[in-house]
Amino acid sequence: MSFDSETPADAPAEQRRGRHSHAAEGAHRGPSHGETDRPTFRNPLSALFRRRKSTVTIGDVRYFDGAELSRPLEMPPVVRYVALGAMLVAAVLGGMFLYNWIDQITNEPLRQQEALQENLAREVTLDLPSLAALMPMDDATMMATLTEAGYTLYERTPVGTNPEGGFEVIKLPADLSVEEAGVMYLTGIDKLSAADAVRLLKGAWTMDVSRKAGESIRLRYADFESGTIEKAVQSAMAAEGLESAEVTDNGVDDSGNTYQAGTVATDNGTYNWRVSVIELSEVYDISGLPNTAYFVGIRFSA
User: Fold this and answer.
1) Whole-angstrom Cα distance, residue 108 to residue 186?
2) Annotated region Disordered: where (predicted)?
């Protein structure tokens, strides 16, 4: 029996190879007519780093042609523009850094000094309370009296929180909010600049009431007005009505405080008192504080 045609399997090898080669040829030809050719991205650096190097063969050894070393060294335009742009950015940033550094070195001390003088010139008053009048009161009545006086108060140890009794309160300058003062106290007075420390301390006082061993009230504040230690002592005594009080002790204690102490008779009883003064720079380690600023302490006890 014979057949007029061959099956694909029986087709000559040349024919099978021909079909395969046509298909492969079509695959290698790429897009057919009518297809859009896609743009090809070429890295501008490829020509620089993939250029075929010329060589010279001497015997069995092949050497790179040294003539390439003598050709001019030129960066591709794209690389040159990028490098120039980077240099410009670096120059601008460097100029800004240099300007800020010079400004910090030369102008910042002047700005701090101006701010210090402005804060020293502020018209704020101490409005010291009368400790003799507060002594017979309990904690709640004492705090109510201070609040009714219209002071801006910041309670460091609120009334009723100490099991042994007593509390601690700070009267703030009239032009400083509780929020601002709270941030400064949390930062730490020693960590403030001289200008900020004066802004916080001028016109402020701290009152500490203790019930541990008898009753005592201690009042502390910074004096920027008196000018001398002696005047600061006399000013504190005058503020508490102690000008004619009996002075039983005075001098300089072991801590360097100049003090006067004695007793005073009032309608509410007789109390012991002590006024002490020391340079403010001995209490707070802050550079730039005025030499005529003093730390004053007043204590009444029963």
Assistant:
1) 24
2) 1-45
DSSP code at position 9: G
Three-class DSSP category at 221:
strand
What is the dihedral sign for C-alpha 64, 70, 71, 76? Answer: positive
Q: Which residues pair with 204 in a beta bridge?
A: none
Report the C-alpha gap between 257 and 128 in whole angstroms. 21
CA dist 162 and 212 (Å) reads 10
- Distance in angstroms (rounded) separating the CA atoms of residues 155 and 204: 13
Q: Please, is 238 exposed, middle or buried when counting C-beta atoms within 10 Å of its C-beta (0-12, 13-18, 19+)?
A: exposed
> Per-residue pLDDT tens for 216-246?
999 999 999 999 999 999 999 999 999 989 9
> pLDDT, tens digit, for every residue of 66-111?
666 666 667 678 877 888 888 888 888 888 887 777 766 676 677 7
pTM recorded for the entire structure: 0.65
Q: Distance (Å, rounded) from C-alpha 204 to C-alpha 127?
A: 9
Q: Which residues pair with 62 in a beta bridge?
A: 57
DSSP helix, strand, coil percent of the chain (3-state; round to 5): 40, 25, 35
What do you get for the CA distance between the two ends of the chain, in Å?
141
Cα angle vertex 143, ends 141, 264, to 5°?
75
| Helices vs strands, H then E, count in the chain | 9, 10
Distance CA(297)–CA(205), nearest Å, equals 10
Rounded average pLDDT per 10-residue block, the chain, 302 residues: 43 46 46 52 54 67 66 73 85 82 70 86 93 96 95 93 94 93 92 94 97 93 96 96 93 96 92 97 93 97 93
Residue closest to 143 by CA, chosen among 178, 171, 124: 171
